[in-house]
Amino acid sequence: MVKRILLIIGIATMLYSKNYIDIYRHDGIQEVKKLFDKELQDKAYWSNYLRDYDTTYGYFEKQKYIIVANKKSKKLDLFYADAKGNLQEIFTKDIITGKSGEKKKEGDLITPLGTYKITMSFVPKDTFYGPIAFSISYPNTFDRLSGRDGHGIWIHGYPLDHEKRPPVTKGCMVLKNDQLLELNSTIDPKNSFVIIHEDNLKPISKETIANILSFIYRWKSAWQNNDIDSYLSFYSKDFKSYDGLNLSSFSIKKRRIFSRKNKKSIIFKYISILPYPNLKNSPIYKIFFYEIYHTKYYNFKGNKELYIKVENDKVKIFIEK
């Protein structure tokens, strides 16, 4: 505990002109923590933090591989993003994809649009799919709440007997086998995201990421401090929870929980912010993070997801899982 306190004070002294040591001497470590929490809610802090950060494809607090598939140009780009904001392009490959548009139902032959995780890598039972395949997390929460169905969207290869069976797809992304094996030898599937778009993916500005990060910590502060009115103001009128609750039902549930005034400890780790391509070109982003939540009566440790919209610098949560 002593080492932790000294580390916090040391970092504060180096990074800020405010005299955190005097605040600690007179008011204790909790007052220093409050000032840190306030700093994290300030967009200006994040703008400075991101000064040398490459936010082209988002923000990552843990190293990630970013696979970007363009359905129009039939190209797949692979990037490596480290936690310091460095973005490295590894390769560009030609791919086969399904039909254009947003996937809506099983059998429509459309490759979905959106942002997904790789859920696993495996050797397909049918050699039609090549030597290895990567499954992606379609349908995700956004897809399901939008009424989209289907399953089995993969990144896979050419038939091993391609002389007899030509490579085709019903909605997957298909790479030549040697390129697929190169992808497999390069990425860590557990730390890989897949962004699928139709030639409409624009670089994300540092200002947008700074705005989203300050939003996340203001939302967290309202949640942790049981400020129910402030907390609910972060949600869109079109909000839906992962289990289908609309904003009205969600608000009733949260007001009941907040009324208990339980002391909360909430920690967010490994935040990732990515664009979410869509045909309407709406400014949608997907946020992943690991949450540690603790009260006297309830504990949670696990992955969380938010889907947000950013319009005129205003950020709203419209889906939470």
Tally of contiguous helical segments: 9
SSE pattern, N- to C-terminal: HHHHEEEEEEHEEHEHHEHEEEE
Fraction in helix: 25-40%
The helix/strand class is alpha+beta
Supply Rg.
Answer: 22 Å
- Largest sheet descriptor: 8 strands, mixed
Q: Strand content of the residues, in percent?
A: 25-35%
- Mean pLDDT equals 92
pLDDT < 50 runs, ≥5 residues:
1-17
By CATH, the topology of the largest domain is L,D-transpeptidase catalytic domain-like
Instruction: Tell me the name of the CATH homologous superfamily of the largest domain.
Output: L,D-transpeptidase catalytic domain-like
Q: Count the E strands.
A: 14
Keywords:
alpha+beta; Nuclear Transport Factor 2, Chain: A; 3 domains; 8-stranded mixed beta sheet; 6-stranded mixed beta sheet; 9 helices; 14 strands; globular; disordered N terminus
What is the element layout, followed by pairings?
Elements: H1 2-15, H2 20-27, H3 29-40, H4 43-49, E1 59-60, E2 64-70, E3 75-81, E4 87-94, E5 114-122, E6 133-136, H5 141-145, E7 154-156, E8 173-174, H6 177-186, E9 192-197, H7 206-224, H8 228-232, E10 235-241, H9 247-258, E11 265-275, E12 284-294, E13 299-311, E14 314-320
Parallel strand pairs: 2-9, 7-8, 10-14
Antiparallel strand pairs: 1-11, 2-3, 3-4, 5-6, 5-9, 6-7, 11-12, 12-13, 13-14
Helix pairs in contact: 2-3, 4-7
